[in-house]
Write a structure and sequence with these properties.
about 350 residues; alpha+beta; Heat Shock Protein 90; 2 domains; five-stranded mixed beta sheet; 8 helices; 5 strands; about 10% strand
Length: about 350
């Protein structure tokens, strides 16, 4: 076995042993002696010899142990959603295996995390689909039956009961509309049927219809193609960002844009709400970051008190797919454009 392949413990033992053996050999061969009462010159020689031994030992150990500190610092800086960060191999041979093993560990962790995230997100989408289907088939049909029954009762009821039946009918209709909106949010059927542009346009229209803030949407021309997984990630990030704006931002205006930057598609959701100095990532933000990593994208969130918040997602295009057709910018009733 070569010295470079030895465990770190044995390397340290060999280095210390070599330094002490060299010191012993020098003392044995050098024409030096120490008196019973150490003279000043002899003390100086011993001090110089000891200093040289310590300095030599420290220099040799540093070559072997410095990569340990580098790996420790790297491990502290590597987050759960960071990807692609690797240590550069050291210039000296000692520590090569340590750095290589650390980089291989990061490769395995990222591969396993990507696989587990893909399975978790697929299971989440499947569960959303199931719940949306049950809402539509079970709750929606039940409310439809209730609505038809109230309509029949209204035609046969005494005049004094008609206002109450009308109010109950309107409540049932509102509940049916809300169930349909929830089902659409859980399962973006328009994304599967009409594509990303139409899905984002519908999302923006629903946001504007709620009256929380004025929304302007902008779709750039010549957008590169995206895979189905990337389109779903873009849609979910936009959905989560708009949901956060509606719940927390207290904004008056929101900008939703989808543009091209090189070989990437960039989604930005910017509001003029209250913002915050220190953004505490909740489950929604962590979910957006995990989705972005899953498709090789980059997510950044910036916020300042009184200056709003910006969510930016950049995802790589999918080579080999046909170009996305341009969508003209036309205003809709919600004050947005496409």
């Amino acid at each position: 076995m070569r010295v470079a392949e030895l465990p770190l413990y044995w390397k340290v033992c060999l280095i210390n042993g070599a330094v002490f053996a060299a010191g012993t050999l020098v003392l044995a061969l050098a024409p030096l002696s120490v008196s019973e009462q150490v003279l000043a010159s002899e003390a100086a020689v011993l001090a110089v010899g000891l200093t040289l031994m310590v300095a030599t030992n420290a220099a040799l150990l540093r070559r072997s142990l410095a990569p340990v500190d580098r790996v420790a610092r790297q491990m502290q800086q590597t987050g759960l959603v960071d990807s692609g960060t690797r240590l550069e191999p050291p210039s000296s041979e000692p520590g090569d295996r340590l750095v290589a093993a650390f980089n291989q560990m990061l490769d395995r962790v990222e591969a396993e995390r990507s696989t587990s995230n893909a399975k978790a997100l697929a299971a989440q989408e499947a569960e959303r689909h199931r719940i949306a289907q049950e809402l539509h088939d079970e709750v929606g049909q039940t409310l439809t039956v209730v609505l038809l029954g109230l309509k029949q009762l209204e035609s046969r009821a005494p005049d004094e009961l008609v206002p109450d039946l009308v109010a109950a009918k309107e409540t049932a209709r509102d509940a049916l509309d809300e169930v349909r909106r929830v089902a659409r949010r859980l399962r973006p059927g328009v994304l599967e049927d009409l594509g990303l542009h139409s899905a984002l346009a519908a999302l923006a229209t629903d946001f504007s219809a709620a009256g929380r803030a004025q929304l302007t949407r902008t779709f750039g021309r010549g957008l590169p193609p995206l895979s189905n997984e990337a389109e779903l990630v873009v849609y979910r990030v936009a959905q989560e960002a708009l949901t956060n704006v509606a719940r927390h931002a207290e904004a008056h205006h929101v900008d939703l844009s989808l543009t091209r930057l090189g070989d990437r598609v960039v989604l930005e959701v910017t509001d003029d709400g209250r913002g915050c100095a220190h953004l505490e990532p909740g489950s929604g933000v962590l979910g957006m970051r995990e989705r972005a990593v899953l498709v090789g994208g980059e997510l950044s969130i910036s916020s300042r008190p009184g200056q709003g918040t910006r969510v930016r997602l950049a995802v790589p295009c999918e080579p080999g797919l046909p170009d996305v057709p341009d969508v003209p910018d036309v205003p809709d009733a919600g004050g947005s454009r496409r």
